Amino acid sequence: MHHRFATGAVCAAAILAVVLAPAAMAQDAPAYRMPPAPIAQILDTDPAPVPSISPDRATLALLGRSNLPSIAEVAEADLRLAGYRINPRNNGPANSRTAWLNSLTFQDVATGEQRVVALAEGQRFIAGGWSPDSRFMAFLADAPEGLELWVAEAATGQARRLTGPVINAAFNTALDWTPDSAAVLARLVPEGRGAAPNVTAAPTGPVIEETTGQAAPNRTYQDLLSNPGDERLFDHYFTSRLALVPVDGSPVRMVGDTGLIAGAAISPDGRHILQTRLKRPYSYNVPARLFPTEVIVTDLGGNLIHQAADLPLRDNVPTPFDSVAEGPRSVEWRADAPATLVWAEAQDGGDSRREAAVRDRVFIQAAPFDAPPRVLIDLNARYAGVDWGRDDLAMVSTRWFNTRHETRWLVDPSSPGQGRLLLERNYQDRYNDPGSPMTRPTPEGFRVMHMTPDGQGVFTTGAGATREGAFPFLGRMDLASGETERLWTSSQTHYETIAGLLDEDGRVLLTRRESLTEPPNLYVRDLDSAEPRAITAFPDPAPQLAGATRETIAYTRADGVQLSGTLYLPAGYDKDRDGPLPLLMWAYPAEFTDAAVAGQVVDTGNRFVRPGGSSHLFLLTQGYAILDNPSMPIVGVDGAEPNDTYVEQLVASAQAAVDAVVARGVADRDRIAVGGHSYGAFMTANLLAHSDLFRAGIARSGAYNRTLTPFGFQAEQRTYWEAPETYNVMSPFMHANRVNEPILLIHGADDSNSGTFPVQTERFYAALKGHGAVARYVVLPAEDHGYRARESVMHTLWEMTDWLNRYVRDAGPAAQGGR
C-alpha cells in the first residue's frame, strides 16, 4: 500500500566533519561544504523537546534539546581512558558523547499550565531525574570550570544551584535521590585535587606486558589505557568522593573515602548505599568495567557493612556472547524490599560452551547481611533481569543468544528456590511478542510491576507487530496461564505507544501518538472516552518532506526467504510521467536462526518519518528514490553458522531487492547505489566486491578487514583461528581487487566503536587505490562512530549527494558484462 511520507524515526546520530580528499599531490586543506537546499534548512530546525513524566504522573517536564553543536564544541579536548572519553575541563563525558539540553518547562498534565524554568543565557545541562516525591528535577549544569548540581521545583519553576562546579561525572552522569527526596547522592571531585599529572615528560622505561600461558581472548576494544601516564590520568579524573547534597541548602554531608566509584545507589529504606569501586591492577587490554572490582554496602556515613563481591581482573572471559565473567554480577537492590540485594552467578564457569544443566543461579540477601544468601531460582540460560511485584511475586527473565531464546519465570521471593515457567519464545519473533510488564514507581523512587486490580495479572505493553503494521497495545498478562488479553490497541491510522499509566486501574494512559502525516505528540487517553486529549503540540520539523510517499514492499529471495523494505519516492513523483529514478538502497544486515522469523514483514504506514542528522533520507529532496532498510537476513538454520554463507545470502538478498524496485518501474537497473553505516558499510563493500548489482556505493564508519577483529565481531562468536575461511571470505579488504564500482568511504577520525577503528577505512582505501579503483576517502575530524557537529553532518550530506550525482544520477549506460 502507498502512504504519504511523514514520520518519525530515521536518524543517524549527528557529530562533526572535515575532509581528507585523497589526491596524488599536495593541496590546500579542504573546507566544509554545505548540502543543497533544503537539507540545511531542515537540519537547522530546533528538535522537539524530550518529555519526562513525574512519578506522581501529574507533571510533565519538557526538556529542550540543543541542535547540532558546532565543530568547535565537538572538538573540545577530550581524554580517552579505559574505555571512557571524558572532557577534562568539566570532568564529565566528552562533548562528542553528550546530548546537551538547553531549556526546561514544567506542564500540568490535567490543565496544560506551563512554568518555564529561567536559565542563564546559553546555559546547557544534563538531566538528572525526578525526586521520588515529584517536587524536584535534578540536573547537571555545565560551567566554565566543571559541572554544577542544580534542582528545579516543579510547582514554581524556580531553579537553584546546590553545589559549585565539583561534580565528578567521569564514569557517568547518574544521580541518586534519597527515598525521602531530601537529598541527592552525588560523586564529587576530591577536595584539593590539584592539577592533572604531567604525562608529557620523557618516559622512564618501556611499556611491558606479559602473558603466562592462561588464555585471555578479548573482543576489539578502543580507548584503553596504554601506559603509566594514562594510569595516572585515570586515577586523577575518575577518583571521586560520595556526598549527600540536601535540597534545602543544608551543608553537604561527605560519605566515606575517595575512590574509583563507578556506581552508587541508595537502598529503598534509605539506610544503605550499594557501591561499585574499582581498584588496581589495571589492564591495557580491557576497559575499566572489567578491572578488579569491589561491590560493597555501606551506611550513609560510608562505613563498610557488607562486601557483596570482590572480583579480580576479568580479562579472560570467553568470547561467545552467552559467556560471562565468574563471580557475582548485576548486583542491585530489590525494588520492593527495604534493603535486599539480588545478583546472579554463573554455574558453568561463565563459559557457554560447557555443558551445564544450570547456567545461572540468582541469589537474594537481606540486610543486615549476616545470614547466608538464599537461592531465588536456578536458570538454564543467562539471567536477563527481574521485575519485582510484591512479597510473593517476581518475574525473572533469561536469554540465550545462540538460539535467540527467552524465558520468563514466576518466583515467590518469600519462599525462594523454585520457579514456574510463564512463557518462552524466540525473542526475534515480532509477530508473537506478548509485550513486557508495565511498571509504576514506589514512594521510594524504585519501580515495580503494575499489577491489575484483582492482583491476578500484570499490565503489559508491546509493539503489536503484524504484517499489516505495528499496533502497540495495553494488555493484561494472566499470571496463572501466561496468556495476554488485549485491553486496548492502537488504531489502524495511528501509531500510539504507551508512555505510562496515569491511574492504578489501567484506564487512563499517557501515550505518544503519531500518524503518517501527524508528528509525534503526547496524549492523555481515557479508555472510557472516545477521543484522546493532546497535551503537547510539537510541529512538523520538516514540512518540506511532507509530499514524499512511502510504501512497504515485500518480495522473495531465491531460496524462498521472505524479504521487505520501505520504498520512499520524492514529492511530486509520477511514475508514468517521470519514469524510473536513480535509487539509493540503504541497509544493515542481521543474523537469524529461523528463516520464518527473518522474513517477518511489518508495514510502516502509520508512522511519521522525518530524517535528521546525516540520514540518507535527505536524498529524497534531491530527486532520488530510496529503498530503506531492505531485509538482508543472514540465516543459520538447525545450528548452522549464519556467516558461513554470508556472501551468498547477502548477494541473494540484494538481487531480490534490485529486482523488486526495477519490476515496480520506479528504479533504473543501471542507476542503483548501495550504502550503509557501520555493519552496513561492511555490507556495502562486500556487495561491490562480490556482485555487479550496483553503480556505486557509500560506506560510512565501517570495518573491512576481519583479521583486525580476530576474537569475534557483530554476531560472529567464533575466533579467527576457529573459522579463518569465514573471516577471510567476509572481509572486503581481501577482495579489494574485485571492487570495480566507485565507492565513497567516510569515517570519524575519533571512532570509538568496538572494531571500527579508523585504520579499517584507511587501509581499505589504500588497497583500493593500489588496485586502481575509483574511491574517495573522507575523514571527519573529532567525530566518533556517528557524526554530531553541524559542519560534519552538513559535509557528509554534501559528499553523499555529490557522489551519487556524479556516479549514479548523471552516469551513462553501464558497461556490458559488469561495471
Key traits:
7-stranded antiparallel β-sheet, mainly beta, 9-stranded mixed β-sheet
Describe this structure in words.
The protein is mainly β and 819 residues long. It is 12% helix and 34% strand. It has a 9-stranded mixed β-sheet, with helices on both faces. A 7-stranded antiparallel β-sheet has the order 13-14-15-16-17-18-19, covered by helices on one side. Strands 2-3-7-8 form a 4-stranded antiparallel β-sheet, with no helix packed on it. Helix 6 crosses helix 7 (679-690). It is globular and about 80 Å long. Residues 1-26 have low confidence and may be disordered.
Spell out the blueprint of helices and strands:
Blueprint: E1 2-4, H1 39-43, E2 50-53, E3 59-65, H2 71-74, E4 79-81, E5 84-87, E6 92-93, E7 101-108, E8 114-116, E9 125-130, E10 136-143, E11 146-153, E12 159-161, E13 176-177, E14 183-188, H3 228-238, E15 240-246, E16 253-266, E17 272-278, E18 293-299, E19 304-311, E20 329-333, E21 340-346, E22 360-366, E23 374-379, E24 382-390, E25 393-400, E26 405-411, E27 419-426, E28 436-437, E29 439-441, E30 447-449, E31 457-462, E32 465-466, E33 469-470, E34 473-478, E35 484-489, E36 494-501, E37 508-515, E38 521-526, E39 533-534, E40 549-556, E41 562-569, H4 575-578, E42 581-586, E43 590-592, H5 595-598, E44 625-628, E45 633-635, H6 646-663, E46 667-677, H7 679-690, E47 696-700, H8 724-730, E48 743-748, H9 758-770, E49 775-780, H10 790-809
Parallel strand pairs: 42-44, 42-46, 43-45, 46-47, 47-48, 48-49
Antiparallel strand pairs: 1-40, 2-3, 3-7, 4-5, 5-6, 7-8, 9-10, 10-11, 11-12, 13-14, 14-15, 15-16, 16-17, 17-18, 18-19, 20-21, 21-22, 22-23, 24-25, 25-26, 26-27, 28-31, 29-30, 31-34, 32-33, 34-35, 36-37, 37-38, 38-39, 40-41, 41-44
